[in-house]
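W.,

You were right to be curious about this one. When I first looked at the sequence I had no strong expectations either way, so I just let the prediction run and decided to look at it fresh. Below is the sequence, 985 residues in total, followed by the output.
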Amino acid sequence: MRNTLVIGALLTGGFTATTEEPLLPQQLEFFEKKIRPVLATQCYSCHSAAEGKNKGGLTLDTRDALRKGGDSGEVIIPGDPKNSLLIKAMHWDPKEGLEMPPKTKLDEGTVADFEAWILMGAPDPRKGKAASIKKVFWTQEQADNHWAYKPIAKPVPPAVKGTWARTPVDEFIRAKHEAAGLQPAKPADKRTLIRRAYFDLIGLPPTLAEVEAFEKDDAPEAFKKVINQLLARPEYGERWGRYWLDIARYADTSGDRAGGNRRDPRYPYAWTYRDYVIRAFNADKPFNQFIREQIAADQLDLDDERDLAALGYLTVGKRFMNDVNEVIDDRIDVVGKGFMGLTLACARCHDHKFDPIPTADYYSLHGVFNSTRYRDELIEEIDEDDPQYIAYTKARQTAINGSREYGLRAYNQLLARFTKDSGKYLFEAQRFIDGKTRAKQAPTAATAAGLNGTAFQNWVTALQNAKRRPNRVFGPWFFFAKLTDDEIAARTPGQWKRLSEQKTVNPIIARALAKARPATLREIAAVYKQVFLNIEDRMDGQYPTAHAVTAFNMGFRFRTAAEAAKIKGMPLPLAEPAAEEIRRIAFGYRSALGMDPRVFNRLGGNRVRNRQVAMFYRTTGLDLTHPGSPAKAMTLQDLPRPRDSRIFIRGERTNLGDRVPRQFLQLIEGKDREPFVEGSGRLELAQSIASKDNPLTARVIVNRVWQWHFGEGIVRTPSDFGLRSDAPSHPDLLDWLARHFMENGWSIKHLHRLIMNSAVYQQSALNNPAYGKIDPNNALLYKWNLRRLDFEAMRDTILVLGGNLDSTAGGRPVTNAAAPRRTVYGYVDRAALPDMYQVFDFANPDMTSAERVETTVPQQALFMMNSQSVLQQARRLASRSAVAQAENVEDKVKALYGIVFQRAPTPKELQTAAAFVKRQPEITPLRRAQYQRQLEFARKRAKDFTKRYNRPTPQAYFTRIPIPMGPVDKLAQVLMETNEFLYVQ
């Protein structure tokens, strides 16, 4: 599932191999981050037109050349990675006889990236002739003159004609109108305006009563009052916090696969970051403080301990199977794009191709984040007498102990099995080491001897280690292994007895050999086996070390004997020193019989591993869902000794260059900037980003706010303000807003009031075909942009219309996608987003998302027509008192229009809707009874499922039950499928 969401989002964007449409930002980013660097470092040395290398007639440094292929034919089939020769070569497919790159096989993650890229249509920006891989596509003059890198100016609002302009914002907009010969659209009517404000600020519709009250309010300040009321509502933070969560690539899971030798992918405390963001927006936290807290909250004096959760901005990203450099890259990326509109991650493998960002700057920031470690931090006081907390801690300890005890039992069974054969393993491993077997490889030797290959390799490794570091247990063995069987047989009883007098021989081993007087090396191995069996008996079936109980990287291990003793079956050292020595050397961690996690996993197999992991995963489930689980923040902590990073040449961690100091960007602070000296440097980094002297930060956030109001930003590449960015449509307005924003306390709510009270915001969406030819994208804002409800607003509005939106604020995520909570509180699983989320263009949580990709696909209409959740809400809407108590069909229609559209139907609409209702058949009593029986049966199955598997019930138990819809129910559903419902004017 590594790239499921990336593929889904980009496929629905409509790109195919044959189109010439511009690449989506996500597609371009995926290519630049995941594909181009690998081609450059692994392929161009043999397949680059710019470098004059075309082995096999193949060059890969342009889109057309890649599509054309080489002597073997096409190397990629866009949309079909399975049959693409490039992928087969990367897998070193023996059927094709290709191994590319020939010297080193690419890791699975890199190949998966190429598979994902080809599946999405192989989007590739490399048009035209191949460029030298050493070239950067910018000049110093371009960088010096780039608008975004210059200090924020102090523009004066221009003088304009007429009385249309109400605010300085309008004066900048109107000046552009006049220059282009445009006239602004007429003002929106009051119903349209209040609906626009409600959806804009809280993502919910007004009631009919609220619309009517506003329409009757003729006071000049009426709309200002509406804005202030909406900004004061808690729903405001839920709406605008969700925008920021897109930037922060928020999710409740790591994106890694569950099971096997992997950590639980669930983040039990990600929700505390989500709640922090919502609180911050509701409190109108100054944005510069918002930045500082999200990078270095642990180093600030916080008024509210819960604000530690701000560090989730860095920590809720993907974990990349615990690849630390990928995690750091993700953090650098979200900091650069989210706060400054810089694609810093593009400088990971080489100097940035398109912006003045050297690789050294990337690794300066790498050192900052590499000087931290993750930790969960309590953010609320614990009442240890609270019954719920007591129940939680008891249940959690039971789950941990159960997993450990199961591991002990499984280990003991394996230990008993392989200890019985230890003599044979010892003898055959020694023969293999001495080169006395035909087999040259350990697995082959094991098979020939009838032994388990993994256990045999463990013995070979243990003996090799013991030979390098002699000990009293295996010392005698290595002595006798040098002798022939005849020399062993010739030893006298006195010689055997004198072994016990040697301090370099374990007394138990010496006595056993003296008693048995073996005549061959094989018989000596049998003596060792008997000693090991006796030690195992003395251990009383206990597991020899604490480590392999936690064999699956579960984040804990025992620190003391007393702690270990609390677990049933966990051993303490044997009383006799000689016996303890054998236990430690032969049964200890990474010894001949002491299986380390890797060996234990292989010998135990999937059944043992998966069951133990599933048992331990219950602890995360308790952390996530138990009402007694205390809230924690996903924080970072500086290492005691921060460390500067060395440059990874071509991005390869094994090819290290110069060490670079931890410091801010040369682009912003110049070549003479000072290195960071306070811990990791995160606080100094945050201060540099949040500085009023940083030319990017304020511009980026005011552009985002403008975009979230109007649908498009003043700069239409909101997370890329570099040299490839679109130029601002209104550069003076952008700088005026940025400076005004900083001068007014970095207040987002102040920005809302400024924008929403402007004439440009309050225009109608009335189109002018003639103007459309002059300004086809409405960049000059001569009218309002018609906007479709995003997924959250649509789903929440459906719940509002059904009368059952649960307005409970905050708390743990809701795992049931059909629950009536606001969508912002839904559980976001990177590896398994609900179909509904994906169909309606939910933000890709694998990467920072500045804007939603808006698609129109048949699945959206089918969902509105057939989804059980929509049908249920339509029934609830039709049963609301205003509708149900209406005396006739016409009155029911009027009530529905009032609830759904906050207006009365026109005479034609009334006539059409009433006729529709009258044509529909009523639900028969038999059908109602049948539905109730099916529903009760499904509820029983769901309850049994939850009890048995301890996880949420699959919605399939309910979605297969056809919901009976009455005539008014069907009309309610139809109204929720109209453009008037789905679009905001």
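Here's what jumped out at me. Confidence is low (pLDDT under 50) at residues 1-19, 543-564. And, maybe more interesting for your project: The CA atoms of residues 241 and 277 lie 6 Å apart.

Coffee later to discuss?

I.
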